[in-house]
């Protein structure tokens, strides 16, 4: 099984070329540009002596995360999918963050949390005792003071975990520097692909959680005209 994974939720873009539970090559940049990302992708394939037709799918981080990053990741995934007639696999960036924490530290109960700005965080609770993180409840965006994980002991992962800790939420352990990346998206994407959970290119869409970010301009409220 071979796939390309793309993630840009933390406002930097990362790529991963994956084959049979092994990373053949990866790349990341803090200044994502579609043209540069495609050059890097072609370079990864060239070094592995592969073509787009040798891939089975494209996995992408579907959010939540930075608006521009999510749009970039999905546009690239759609373009590659359409151009190579490849299936797409959508992966939660909170799940990818939890999986990185599990792989790095062995934690099994994780609150994955990312700073959403405006005094809010994206967050979700995951059990990571199996092959993939199991979502406990729902992915949410909440004010920091309103976040209440399920009862029990939890480790915290991501920039939002630090904000929660400063607000008084105690974790058994914490890694605030972790972010979702393409390697975690590739790992989880391969599992989804194996079970047939795939999308067509036109079905790919971001998950913002903060709905008003994606609200069409025509639907936004306008001030009533002055009499």
What does this structure look like?
The protein has 227 residues and is an alpha/beta fold. The chain folds into two domains: 132 residues, Nucleotidyltransferase, domain 5 (2-Layer Sandwich); 82 residues, ATPase, nucleotide binding domain (Nucleotidyltransferase, domain 5). 29% of the residues lie in helices and 29% in strands. It is built from five helices and ten strands; from the N terminus they run βββαβαβαββββαβα. A hairpin with a 5-residue loop joins strand 1 and strand 2. The protein is globular, with a radius of gyration of 18 Å.
CATH architecture of the largest domain: 2-Layer Sandwich
Read across the widest sheet, the strand sequence of neighbours is 3-2-1-4-5
Q: What is the total domain count?
A: 2
Helix/strand/pairing category: alpha/beta
Can you identify the CATH class of the largest domain?
Answer: Alpha Beta
Through-space gap between termini: 65 Å
What is the H-and-E element order? EEEHEHEHEEEEHEH
Please state the overall shape, judged from the principal axes of the Cα atoms. Answer: globular
CATH H level, superfamily name of the largest domain: ATPase, nucleotide binding domain
Q: How many strand units?
A: 10
Q: Mean pLDDT, rounded to whole units?
A: 91
Note the beta-strand portion: 25-35%
CATH topology-level name of the largest domain: Nucleotidyltransferase, domain 5
Radius of gyration: 18 Å
Largest sheet: 5 strands, mixed
How many H/I helices? 5
Low-confidence runs: 213-227
